[in-house]
Amino acid sequence: MKACKILYYSKMLLLHMLASIAICQAAIVVDTMPVRFVDTREISVTWDIFALQPGPMSKNVPFNLSDKYIQNLVSELRPFVLRVSGTGCENTMFDNNPDSYVPIPLAVQNLLRPGGGGTKPFNVSIADYRKLAEFAKVVGADLVLGLNLLLRDWPDGGVRGCNNKTCPWNSKNARAWIEYNLVNNFPVYGYELGNEPGCFMPEVNLTGSMVATDFSKLKRLLHNIYQGKDKVPKAIGPDVGGCKHADEMKDILEANFSADILTFHHYVLGGGNSHTYNVSDFIQAAESNTSEKAMESYSVLRDSMEPHTPLWLGEGATTYSQPLDSSYAMAFNYINILKYSGLAGVDVFAKQSLPDFLGTREANGVVVPTSIYWVALAWTRLMGTSVLNTTQSEQSLVVAARSSRMQDDISVVAMVNLLNSSRTLAFQSGSPNAEHSCEALFLDPATTAADPYTLVNGKVPVVLSDGTVPAFSMNSVACDNITLRPFTIAFVSFT
User: Fold this and answer.
1) pTM surpassing 0.85?
2) More confident residue, 58 or 84
3) What are phi and psi of 37, to 5 degrees?
4) Can you tell me the distance from the alpha carbon of 335 to that of 291, in angstroms, rounded to the nearest whole number?
5) Cβ contacts of residue 139 below 8 Å, gap of 6+?
6) Looking at residues 296-306, what average pLDDT do you find?
7) Which terminal residue of the chain, N or C, has fewer Cβ atoms less than 10 Å from its own Cβ?
């Protein structure tokens, strides 16, 4: 089998790199000069706000938020953002205090997506919310909360939505929630206003200009409530995606939209009940340019209209509401999205969804982390914030590169072998006489790529009894002879 060579070079060694490629049929080139920089919280997570529906939290939350084992397991992913929002955001109201109640007219409800993601309008109880907020505080997460954009002063009872009339966002309920978080010192990093507005803006005649006005109102509200405080939560949005994409973002930005962080959503395949995807679909999606094009479309828009505003992928994955959401195969596009989001200057990727990271309980009641968790943890511990560009002629291989988390002059490459067969790779420096060493961490399916669990360096990964995870043991490997087994995910550091 012909080994493909991975060459490291700086721009000063470009000519030597081109000469090196000529002697290798399948070359992967990693440029050690950073092309972008990302947030230290690049690996972040979402959690659908419907988890806060009334009733026993166990109905929507598959683990005990006060369990120290769970808390320690999740805290291993620090630093990260925990974004709590989703389709149910437009059905959510904080508490049931009459002083902060803002009704959503039935006429407006009838114009929206059926059930708003499986829910009807509901009030988040203080007791349930405190469990979530305390959890975020204990695990060290930066909490981002979704506020309801449809709590408005609707003209004519909302029969035709805004109907080209004055239709302002009513911030009364948002104020109550924000003030509650301030008083209780909960770690709220920012607030979103609305979720995937392109899915309902046309139905309720809500314009981009109105959304921009609403965000200005949110920013004023935050600064008013936090007046005199050292830190003010961010206004984050507009969370476009799902139904419309960059065109919707453009309409909103052109209306003098002002947010501290711009956000969009991206699902490679989609989801719901209309179609069930399999492992082959996940592989084809990772081999496609779908994520590359999506990241580029938002990046170009941000760079041209709001070049100094951070851009986040606020929600995304390969699929949602699908049997393989927590499968090993989900990691294929996870790394592919991280590759292209980094190259596009997307600072944070909040992966959908936290329960998919933690899998199910064994017979003894212990939660077993899924493959997604181990990929996220490996990325968090090994991959730094300097994004490195890669080029390759090898097919069915995802390659993403960063500086090392521990040392900027070390490069780390994350690779996914999308073949159901082994392949051998050789690392080669752009400097022919340089001596180099390689260390690798290998993840493989514990059974099949359709199942949720993984092996790390050929063994069941260790979680201590208190939920903490020991440091990974990297394997020393020959840089010119690295074997990737079928569907192997490898993190390789090169010095």
Assistant:
1) yes
2) 84
3) -130, 140
4) 11
5) 71, 74, 75, 78, 82
6) 93
7) N
